[in-house]
Recover the amino acids of this structure.
């Protein structure tokens, strides 16, 4: 099952604002996007057309085993209807003139937060934009599935309205290797009522049921789910937890086991970054995990032994190298080496990620250089705030602008009250008169006794503080008069920023696809531009 491609974008409007205006992104990311500070020093290519041209040329110097990649992708899609666009893109990967636009995320249950979709949509649109910019090349969007993650509390949960749902399974280890069990089917059944009453919810529910069938691995289920939405648009889903792909990464993993090179490689960048920015991650001495059965645990070197933390598994040096060469699928890179693995198996020119992802990627350039792997251009993913027509109308009627959505609640209250008060809510003229009065008093008293000047200044300070407190009381009194409007501001803020967070980091796709079907995705795609880094506010019909 999949949605029809022949749906028109619904009528919507969109405005673009700087990421920095939201006050929700780090200084590092704001500087990177705006070309300020030292952020650009930590990447290989600037996020502009010239940077993309250089990234393409740089990628050509680092060929990959395209035959292996095509073989693995073909096998992963073998039991599915891969769609013509997917087949075409797999075929294009055989050519040295084809490059990949990559985004990555864990296989979140039912996609998790909205930005799961936003990442993928941006990768698709960016690939199209690059094709227009560089028509002599081909660009294929790829969703790299981070299925070796083991954080079930995060990956196995999602939010619908104000309720958080959690997959309560007894399975452990890498999430992608887990299977759909009765607990997950029960969760889908529990939510049928929610989806069935939404105008288009039944179609979305059918896709979920088809994807998440008992016995399927989460890898397989996520592939089916994502493919239903984006296969017709040519998105390739890659499951990197694959023995053949891991075999191509053996040289890097062996180097890490023998020398723990990655830890030392990131230290100069961490030291330099920390002078101006917050450091995202410092990694570990050895940045590999061991995967077997339902175990996913860190590998540590202790003396001449390699131990798998919290297990009885241990290896000598020769034993772990033998294990690596015989069973490369039992080894998994952590956050420090994951990107290196990604670019070892994919002919990527750009990685599309969120602010946190780009922050730790900026620590890694030297890690890539140490093993001769291409370091891609980094593109901040699109971010959206979705508002409905009623919210937009009410917001505008209160004389708030688009950037006001991101202001603290108290600031909005004070601004509204002052703007709509029947009487002036400030005593600035009186404060100025008071300041002048105490200046005169001070001049007079120092004539009598110079030591009284400090006392006069203290009295002036106390008087000003009392006037300032009186102003606050006037605002509070007016706020009570404007209680209805204040409540409306609270409601809109709560609706648009659930859990006091960005909507895209909390809400699930269900609400939106269930309301608007595929036209919602088409709307996001319409307003998702590949190269421009701006925050987008979309008014839905």
């Amino acid at each position: 099952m999949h949605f029809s491609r022949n749906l028109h974008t619904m009528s919507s409007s969109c405005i673009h604002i700087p990421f920095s205006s939201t006050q929700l992104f780090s200084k590092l990311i704001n500087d990177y996007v705006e070309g300020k500070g030292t952020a650009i020093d930590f990447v290989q290519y600037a996020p502009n057309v010239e940077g993309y041209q250089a990234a393409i040329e740089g990628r050509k110097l680092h060929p990959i085993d395209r035959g292996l990649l095509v073989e693995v992708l073909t096998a992963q899609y073998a039991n599915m209807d891969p769609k013509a666009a997917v087949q075409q893109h797999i075929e294009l990967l055989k050519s040295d003139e084809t490059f990949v636009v990559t985004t990555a995320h864990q296989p979140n249950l039912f996609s998790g937060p909205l930005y799961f979709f936003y990442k993928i949509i941006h990768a698709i649109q960016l690939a199209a934009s690059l094709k227009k910019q560089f028509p002599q090349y081909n660009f294929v969007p790829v969703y790299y599935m981070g299925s070796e993650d083991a954080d079930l509390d995060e990956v196995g949960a999602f939010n619908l309205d104000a309720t958080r749902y959690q997959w309560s399974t007894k399975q452990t280890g890498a999430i992608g290797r887990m299977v759909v069990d009765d607990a997950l089917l029960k969760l889908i059944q529990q939510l049928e009522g929610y989806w069935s009453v939404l105008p288009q919810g039944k179609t979305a529910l059918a896709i979920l049921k088809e994807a998440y069938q008992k016995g399927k691995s989460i890898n397989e289920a996520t592939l089916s789910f994502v493919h239903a939405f984006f296969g017709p648009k040519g998105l390739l889903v890659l499951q990197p937890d694959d023995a053949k792909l891991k075999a191509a990464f053996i040289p890097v993993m062996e180097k890490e086991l023998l020398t723990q090179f990655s830890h030392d490689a990131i230290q100069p960048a961490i030291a330099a970054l920390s002078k101006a920015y917050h450091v995202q991650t410092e990694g570990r001495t050895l940045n590999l995990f061991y995967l077997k059965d339902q175990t996913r645990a860190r590998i540590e070197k202790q003396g001449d032994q390699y131990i798998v933390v919290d297990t009885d598994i241990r290896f000598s040096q020769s034993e772990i190298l033998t294990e690596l060469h015989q069973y490369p699928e039992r080894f998994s890179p952590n956050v420090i080496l994951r990107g290196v693995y990604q670019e070892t198996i994919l002919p990527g020119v750009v990685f599309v990620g969120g602010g946190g992802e780009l922050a730790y990627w900026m620590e890694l350039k030297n890690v890539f250089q140490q093993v001769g792997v291409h370091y891609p251009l980094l593109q901040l993913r699109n971010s959206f705030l979705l508002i409905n027509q009623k919210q937009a109308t009410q917001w505008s009627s209160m004389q708030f602008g688009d950037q006001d959505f991101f202001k603290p609640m108290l600031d909005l209250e004070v601004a509204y009250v002052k703007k709509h008060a029947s009487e002036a809510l400030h005593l600035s003229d009186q404060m100025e008169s008071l300041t002048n009065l105490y200046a005169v008093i001070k001049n007079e008293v120092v004539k009598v006794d110079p030591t009284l000047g400090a006392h006069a200044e203290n009295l002036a300070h106390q008087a000003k503080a009392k006037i300032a407190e009186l102003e606050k009381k006037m605002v509070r009194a007016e706020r009570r008069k404007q209680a209805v409007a204040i409540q409306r501001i609270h409601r809109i803020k709560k609706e648009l920023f659930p859990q006091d967070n960005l909507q895209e980091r909390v809400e699930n796709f269900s609400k939106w696809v269930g309301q608007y079907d595929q036209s919602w995705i088409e709307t996001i795609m319409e307003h998702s531009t590949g190269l421009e880094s701006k925050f987008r506010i979309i008014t839905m019909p």
The radius of gyration is 28 Å. Residues 452-481 form the longest helix (30 residues).
